[in-house]
Specification:
Blueprint (H helix, E strand, L loop, with lengths): L15 H9 L7 H34 L12 H30 L2 H4 L17 H8 L2 H27 L1 H5 L6 H22 L1 H18 L4 H12 L2 H22 L5 E4 L4 E6 L9 E7 L1 H12 L4 E3 L1 H10 L11 H20 L25
Parallel strand pairs: 1-4
Antiparallel strand pairs: 1-2, 2-3
Helix pairs in contact: 2-3, 2-8, 2-9, 6-8
């Protein structure tokens, strides 16, 4: 397995960021066999399709180029004009063919690694001139693969070419009997079909080479477990720092929540494990809202603040649990708890009136209508 300088094995597949950075540096999988095969296939098909037209155009160029009228012999600029016309005619004839090959050459590499242009990969690297490294590459797995491909390519092309020539021997021998125009058209057709068969034989080589290049590139980009951790830390932030930030955020949220407790009308308790602070204002609220909630130590702190600010405490374990598990901070209580909360608030308001006017204290409501399924942690709000 590949190892880094710290002797850690590079066993992890490259991350998306690693691949993206490598792509920026021009390190993407490329298969020369695939590119060559596609270019040969495109060129041979184009030659078959355009062979007759190219033959006619060449015949016309040869005819006009080798024809010289007596009147033109004495014109000093005729030869230059004739040569210019011939060159322009040849270029115009080959432009479609050349554009097709250029398009295939540009787009075929993108089939494996996508489009990638890196100025960094174009910079000269004097390390490539090191003969020791060159010998290592020659006897590496990649060098062995290149040698195998070269031998296989020679064998395939040689075998296919032999059978093509053998099968077309009579046709080739008969080309001398054709007219000049027919000769060009027939020759282009034979060359096009021959190229097509030879190119098709290289498809097998391209199929073998493309996955190998992808595997080879992935192997070069492999990372150690420490590198993956470091990259994750750099991308997402230090876990310890993130933990401290979360703790600070929770502390700030807790502080804001505790500041809301003195505004509550009543604190409904479990009595010790849960505590919820409820507020209702018929002028601005359509239903009672939850200002604060907590359990254990937080619940104890809510009760302390309530006692310091003379906020009444009401012991109702099922209702306290139901509100705690079903309601988020600063949200209205569920409709299923309207009646129970209304009974508690009515009792608290009656106590205020009785205290102000020295009246008899009201009787605390019991048996509050709280659905059993709401008073469990299955309904807990995260």
């Amino acid at each position: 397995m590949a190892e880094n300088k710290s002797d850690q094995e590079k066993t992890e597949d490259p991350t998306a960021k690693k691949r993206e950075d490598a792509k920026k540096d021009g390190q993407v999988p490329r298969s020369r066999e695939l590119n060559t095969t596609l270019m040969l296939l495109a060129g041979s098909i184009a030659l078959i399709i355009m062979g007759e037209a190219i033959g006619e155009r060449l015949s016309h160029l040869m005819t006009t180029g080798l024809t010289l009228d007596r009147d033109n012999i004495f014109e000093t600029g005729f030869m230059l004009t004739a040569m210019t016309d011939s060159l322009l005619g040849a270029f115009s004839m080959l432009i479609p063919f050349a554009l097709l090959l250029i398009a295939v050459a540009v787009f075929s590499p993108a089939l494996l690694g996508g489009f990638s242009f890196s100025a960094k990969s174009m910079k000269p690297k004097f390390s490539k001139l090191d003969p020791v490294k060159g010998m290592k590459k020659l006897f590496s797995a990649n060098g062995l693969m290149e040698l195998t491909k070269a031998l296989l390519k020679v064998a395939l092309i040689g075998t296919v070419a032999f059978f093509i020539i053998w099968s077309q021997i009579d046709t080739l021998m008969g080309l001398g009997n054709l007219s000049f125009k027919e000769l060009f058209a027939r020759s282009a057709e034979i060359v096009g079909w021959s190229f097509l068969f030879i190119s098709s034989s290289l498809i097998l080589l391209a199929i073998l080479d493309a996955p190998f290049q992808v595997w080879q590139n992935t192997k070069k980009l492999r990372m150690t477990k420490q590198e993956v951790k470091d990259e994750s830390k750099n991308a997402e932030g230090d876990p310890e720092l993130k933990g401290k930030i979360r703790a600070m955020q929770q502390e700030m949220a807790m502080r804001r929540m505790m500041q809301e407790v003195p505004r509550a009308d009543v604190i409904v308790t479990n009595p010790t494990h849960y505590a919820v602070a409820i507020k209702y204002d018929d002028q601005s609220m359509s239903a009672p809202r939850l200002l604060a909630k907590g359990h254990d130590e937080v619940a104890a702190r809510i009760r302390e603040i309530a006692e310091e600010n003379n906020i009444p405490l009401f012991e109702a374990p099922p209702l306290a649990r139901a509100i705690y598990f079903t309601t988020d901070l600063d949200q209205e209580i569920p409709a299923a708890l309207y009646q129970a909360v209304a009974m508690v608030l009515a009792y608290i308001f009656q106590i205020r009136v009785a205290t102000e006017h020295a009246l008899d204290m009201p009787i605390a409501p019991d048996d509050l209508p709280v659905p059993d399924d709401l008073a469990t942690d299955k309904n807990k709000k995260k």
